[in-house]
Amino acid sequence: MKTFYLRLTVVLFLLVLPGMASAEKAPAAGDLLVDIRLDAPESPDQRTYLGLSEDGRFDPTTITGQLLVIEIFSMYCPHCQREAPAVNSLYQAIQASETLRGRVKMIGIGVGNSAYEVDHFRKHYRIAFPLFPDEDFIIHKSVGEVRTPFFIVVSIGPNDKGRVLWTGAGSMDKLETFISRLNGFLSLD
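The structure assignment produced for this chain is given below.
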């Protein structure tokens, strides 16, 4: 009889475990961005760029602008390291564009990275946009434990706030393709 209950317990455990252990699904176009909380950057310039008036925690969908490009990266990811110059070029192109500057913002979230590691990545690859640590993988788990780098474009404007418009894993596409995609999203507003 003990063997029967032991087997029944194991079967029930195996049936329930997948539901308990599964992470959130990766964001896809049309989804709402999962609840993310970040600590405001210490740098006044970065807080100004994001449109944050205070220190403390904030929701990325409250950043000023119309679109937010989020890069999920890790400083230890060789693909993220290789992609850093392209991501920098995207940021520079956005800042140089009269139609995109101020309307499109960028942030990076370093999964499994401490503040020290994120700062090292920022300095080594000369990243100008704000980067945030996710040392305990909390954000990474909430976005489906995606592989890095992973890109999410989110609407942060008054229409459809927090709606995921596009996601992509690996390289971010050619710069012109990405810029065209952003312009297309802005024309929908």
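Interim note for the steering committee: Confidence is low (pLDDT under 50) at residues 3-23. The first strand starts at residue 38 and ends at 39.
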